[in-house]
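Translate structure to sequence.
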């Protein structure tokens, strides 16, 4: 991918650049993503580590479970990225991927989600089928690999 996409947090202290084509474009509806974002579901793109760079500022790192590192802006709190060394989806294990919170991209239309992870953890007032029509579902929809 010769083009790149920039993004950043609400206050502008932290900026980043994505310069690789995403391997995964998804929503995650798990309880820890909910806690990290303050939203019921969060859109992610997973890209090779080499295709993601912080270009301004220094995000804060939080280890949200044994194998998961999340980074966010320490001033305004925007969730920025997610790294998991032991995610059950094989695509995370074939390369070193970083998941980028894609709603923090300047161009929010760039990489629409086409998969839903942990749709079973959504609150009752969101229908997983309506969240992302036509999406492929993982975990809790017949695919029981929840970490
Ligand atoms: Zn910020
Ligand atoms: Zn999640």
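Result:
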């Amino acid at each position: 991918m010769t083009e790149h996409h920039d993004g950043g947090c609400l206050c502008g202290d932290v900026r980043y650049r994505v310069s690789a084509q995403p391997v995964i474009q998804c929503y995650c509806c798990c309880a820890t993503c909910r806690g990290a974002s303050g939203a019921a579901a969060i859109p992610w793109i997973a890209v090779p580590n080499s295709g993601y760079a912080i270009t301004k500022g220094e995000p804060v790192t939080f280890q949200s479970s044994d194998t998961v590192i999340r980074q966010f802006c320490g001033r305004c709190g925007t969730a920025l990225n997610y790294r998991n060394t032991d995610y059950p989806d094989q695509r995370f294990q074939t390369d070193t991927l970083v998941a980028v919170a894609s709603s923090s991209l300047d161009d929010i239309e760039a990489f629409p989600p086409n998969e839903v992870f942990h749709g079973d953890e959504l609150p009752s007032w969101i229908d997983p089928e309506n969240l992302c029509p036509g999406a492929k579902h993982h975990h809790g929809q017949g695919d029981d690999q929840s970490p």
